[in-house]
From TrEMBL:
InterPro entries: SAM-dependent_MTases_sf (IPR029063), tRNA_(Gua-N-7)_MeTrfase_Trmb (IPR003358), tRNA_methyltr_TrmB_bact (IPR055361). GO terms for cellular component: tRNA methyltransferase complex. It is an enzyme of class 2 (transferase). S-adenosyl-L-methionine binds at E63, E88, D115, D137. Keywords: Methyltransferase, S-adenosyl-L-methionine, Transferase, tRNA processing. Its EC number is 2.1.1.33. Residues 1-10 have a biased composition (Basic and acidic residues). The keyword Transmembrane does not apply. GO terms for molecular function: tRNA (guanine(46)-N7)-methyltransferase activity. This is tRNA (guanine-N(7)-)-methyltransferase. The lineage of its organism: Bacteria, Pseudomonadati, Pseudomonadota, Alphaproteobacteria, Hyphomicrobiales. Catalyzes the formation of N(7)-methylguanine at position 46 (m7G46) in tRNA. It catalyses: guanosine(46) in tRNA + S-adenosyl-L-methionine = N(7)-methylguanosine(46) in tRNA + S-adenosyl-L-homocysteine.
Length: 232
């Protein structure tokens, strides 16, 4: 199957959608809190993405697969003048984040609970300042590598929605996925890797809060890479 046909054929880039049963409060948050923050990528695309937010924002970031939300909520609270769109298809992870904002929903945050491709295709061109893809599912078996989110077709999508000079940040503890991403970005030609020395890609991003996936990798003896690319 070609990269261009992955999404059309219904092969999602994520694995299972739900884990252990939700508690009553989690289910209620999904039914009542999520709709107030959710975007609809099947409706009209906004001319100005800033109009999605109640806050006055001047920069716009997208985080794909935010997991438990540690990084996303840290950035949302740290940068009130930035509008964040967070995407997470795993129901339990979305419920965890909603439990942390229930009753005090940030006005610079919007959410989506399904395939990121739908959002990327809906966003206006040159509308984002940054895309974060942090510890994505590595699909470690070679026969599953075609399901990795980093692909030429998705890099095309990133390139379309990023502003000139916009950043694509990728973090992982899986060597094969790190190399995969470097090779795909090099082949694409629309992204410039910003590392000058090893410290540049072995050092976490500024004000990095850490994530549970990163902590798990450290416990298991794996180090992480933090790659930054600029749209050219």
């Amino acid at each position: 199957m070609s990269e261009n046909s992955q999404h059309e054929a219904g092969k999602a880039f994520f694995g299972r959608r739900k884990g252990k049963p939700l508690r009553d409060r989690q289910a209620r948050n999904l039914a009542e809190v999520l709709p107030a923050l959710a975007i609809d990528p099947f409706g009209p695309s906004p001319d100005d993405l800033r109009s999605l937010f109640a806050a006055e924002v001047n920069t716009l970031r997208l985080e794909i697969g935010f997991g438990g939300g540690e990084h996303l909520l840290h950035r949302v609270r740290e940068e009130p003048a930035t509008g964040f769109i967070g995407i997470e298809p795993f129901v339990n992870s979305m419920a965890k984040l909603l439990g942390q904002v229930e009753g005090a929903e940030p006005d610079n945050l919007r959410l989506y609970d399904d395939d990121a491709v739908s959002v990327l295709d809906w966003l206006p061109a040159a509308s984002l300042d940054q895309i974060d893809l942090l510890y994505p599912d590595p699909w470690p078996k070679r026969r599953h590598w075609k399901r990795r989110f980093v692909s030429q077709v998705n890099l095309d999508r990133f390139h379309r929605v990023l502003k000139p000079g916009g950043r694509f940040c990728f973090a992982s503890d899986i060597d094969s996925y790190i190399n995969w991403t470097l090779l795909h970005c090099r082949r694409h030609g629309g992204f410039s890797w910003q590392a000058k020395t090893a410290d540049d890609w072995l050092t976490p991003y500024d004000n990095w809060p850490g994530t549970r996936y990163e902590a798990k990798a450290r416990r298991e003896g794996r180090s992480s890479a933090y790659l930054t690319f600029l749209k050219i």
